[in-house]
Design brief:
alpha/beta, Rossmann fold, 2 domains, six-stranded mixed sheet, four-stranded parallel sheet, 36% helix, 15% strand
Length: 323
């Protein structure tokens, strides 16, 4: 087969381009470079770890032909796993809090997955740690019932390793290593961990910053006061064992208002239609450019697509405004 032709959608994962957000940063001294991970075929950077986890499980005899794969997900890793499992013919069960957007569940079901939605304690409070505990308990029961392989993205080293082997080196090749700082909203922490490790090995002076929501900045050492933030897939107030804290140069927090405003402006100014976590990363990058990194270059990931947030308040009146 022609080497330019992918044998399956799995081979299309990775190698996302990097864009200089020069229009968005016209009013500030410095550059924000954005890696468009939302262009992955499953619509997020999680496609990379889904591929890595399944491949490793196959290589190590942890996953047998036709065995069920099961994962707790806010949707993006589930989308990636649903895609991989569809190609490789593994039944896939996603266990997800009902507090996450229905678009993600619809995508997984379209690719043949079974989606189990778990009710929240209080929908007004966002997806809380207690909600996640209930999701985990149900996942454990279903894994035992179906003799399923647990993808277990919060704990498996394949998560951070995939970003260490692919995302980090891609960044360095695409920018010739000309990066002064990197900031990343953490869900599992695997993306931050892998990229930060690659960056620190290349140049220890690259600043690596964890981004969390106001009111749920556990990794920054703050008390958890509110989990009702808009950013899905993180800010649960959990310990994240994949993160090497020797690679953390600081912590940044963002609030819902600035995240929403930046995400909308990203779409209107740069034509990049992304989700809340991408806005969180850019809002955090602005903080760095207004502080010690004035005039410098900040790297951020555009984590997932705005198409996964059409049912939320992210786009406000934009979707209903007549032509």
């Amino acid at each position: 087969m022609n080497k330019a032709i992918c044998s399956s959608i799995i081979d299309a994962v990775g190698h996302a381009p990097v864009v200089d957000l020069s229009r968005l940063t016209a009013d500030i001294d410095g550059h924000i470079l954005a890696k468009l991970e939302y262009l992955n075929p499953g619509g997020s950077k999680k496609d990379l770890i889904a591929r890595a986890i399944i491949q490793s499980a196959e290589d190590n005899g942890l996953l047998q032909p036709g065995q069920t794969v099961l994962e707790v997900t806010s949707g993006n890793t589930g989308n990636g796993l649903a895609m991989i499992c569809a190609v490789k013919k593994y039944p896939f069960i996603a266990v997800m809090s009902r507090g996450n957007t229905p678009e993600r569940a619809a995508m997984m079901r379209a690719m043949g997955a079974t989606v189990v939605l778990v009710e929240q304690s209080d929908p007004k409070e966002g997806v809380t740690g207690d909600d996640m505990k209930r999701v985990e308990d149900i996942a454990d029961e279903l894994a035992a019932k179906h003799n399923a392989f647990r993808a277990d993205q919060f704990k498996r080293e394949e998560n951070s390793q995939a970003h260490y082997e692919h995302t980090g080196p891609e960044w360095l090749r695409q920018t010739d290593g000309n990066i002064d700082a990197f900031c990343d909203f953490v869900g599992t922490g695997g993306g931050f961990a892998g990229v930060a490790r690659a960056f620190k090995e290349h140049n220890p002076d690259i600043g690596c910053y964890i981004v969390e929501p106001h009111g749920a900045a556990k990794l920054a050492g703050a008390c958890i006061t509110c989990c009702a933030h808009v950013i899905q897939g993180g800010g649960y107030g959990k310990d994240l064992p994949l993160i090497n804290h020797d690679h953390v140069d600081g912590h940044l927090t963002v609030d819902d208002g600035e995240v929403t405003e930046v995400t909308r402006r990203l779409a209107k100014t740069e034509g990049i239609f992304a989700g809340y976590s991408s806005g969180a990363n850019i809002a955090a990058a602005y903080q760095l450019l207004r502080g010690d990194f004035k005039g410098k270059t900040i790297a951020v990931n555009i984590c997932d697509s705005g198409l996964k947030y059409l049912s939320t308040d992210l786009w406000g009146d934009e979707l209903s405004t007549p032509a």
